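New to this. Please check this fold:
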Amino acid sequence: MPKCLCFMLLIFAISAPALAQGEWAGRDEAFQLKAYARIASHSEEAANLYADASEALEEGNLFFAKLAFKDVLDQAPAADDAMRGLARVEYLWDNFEDAEGWARQALGIRESMENRAQLAFVLLAFGEEERNGEALELVRNAPEESPNELWPNYSLFLAAHRVGDVEALKAASARMVEIAPEFGAPHFFHGQFLAKAGDWDAAELSLGRAAELGVAEEEIALAMLKLELGEKMRVQRSARGLIWFGMLVALVGVGILLTLKIWFERRRPE
């Protein structure tokens, strides 16, 4: 795996829990409203408890959040949204096995991208090859199925890094720069993919944005160097192509002139 991928994985390993309990916990507002409506169809009291639990999770009050999510399940035992909330709480407490258990229960009750994303996020915490592969497959279709939802695409972004799946990373980076433009890492990799595609100006802008958002200067410098080298190579290839084309045209021209000369000499009367 490229060194820059390994470097960014270290950043993700440190920052992912903070992101989970910080501002991102409440980013998918439309999704939260849907979750509230699903629980309210079973119990209005359970729905209110779920709202309290979600707010506590967003604020980092994990103890209260856990109690409230469990109260939701007392009122609505099949509330997969509450199970997913418990999975997130246990994850933030580093209780990864308990988190996996809750996430698998949620997915067993309702097959959905948000439940797959939560399970994928937990599986990546183990750092095991088999679990990493399962995580990637769970969310591989997130850009198509949930193009505007944060957590599925973020889970894909992490899983693609861990497994080293370039195409999945490319798709996830493209979505993440739209969904969460304040996060630097997707800009960093999106810029490199743009450079690989030959879109040099857009690549430079994306890498510059990554630098503004805190991606390590040495990584940006390395990417910029590669960008400059790639541009130089492209220019050199274009120049060489023009030279070869000019030589070919010259050879064809000489050939035509020689052919005409021979033809006229044969036509000249004795």
